[in-house]
Amino acid sequence: MNLSPIGGDLAAFIFGSVTGLLVQRSRFCNTAALRDAILFKTYRNTKAMLVAMMILTFGFTLFLTFGEGHPMHFDVGLNTFAGLFLFGIGMVLAGACTVSTWVKTGEGNVGALWALLFTFIGMFLFSLAWSSNYWPPAPTSMTGEPNLPALQLGYANAATLQTKLGIPALVFGLAQIAALFAIYRAILRKEKVQAEHHKIVAAEHHHDDAQTKNHAA
């Protein structure tokens, strides 16, 4: 479906507004999904993120299988992992992911506003370094094909695998969904163990309180 520029802008505005409302009401945050699971052993956001990833993976690879959609193509290499690691550190220090930072800024959180401002400043400064000092040089090493001496793995997505191997992208999507579901099941089992442990601790405290009252009587 082809939309006029105004129609496209309106559709983007409505989609963005609804997404922002859902994120604000659910308090969903990508950073919290990983940070809370690792540091605090709570998995509310983690489970929500896994479910979203499974739904998106299925829909995305289904479109690719039937030749629809416009997937992004970008090289994956050492620079990708280094950039994601630095981005993750910045978001944990800021206390929220980029999406959640936008939401908090809209709620009037001054700290989130500063984090958002310096996100833009950092992206601008990095864009200056990208053109002159980027290693390995992008024009020669990022060709879409594996280039191990330059630590580049080429295009790494289901569309590329479908083209090169002749296997429908949905197959790779289902494999990824299975892995995500296994993680989801492991979290549910861990939460069940935590709940049973909390019940035992609560029962012990209740027993100790009862004994203390009996001795006092």
TrEMBL record:
Is Membrane among this UniProt entry's keywords? Answer: yes
Q: Where are the transmembrane segments?
A: 6-23, 48-66, 78-103, 110-130, 165-184
Q: Which domain of life is it from?
A: Bacteria
Mention any Pfam family matching this sequence: Sulf_transp
Q: Which UniProt keywords apply?
A: Membrane, Transmembrane, Transmembrane helix
Protein name from the UniProt record: Uncharacterized protein
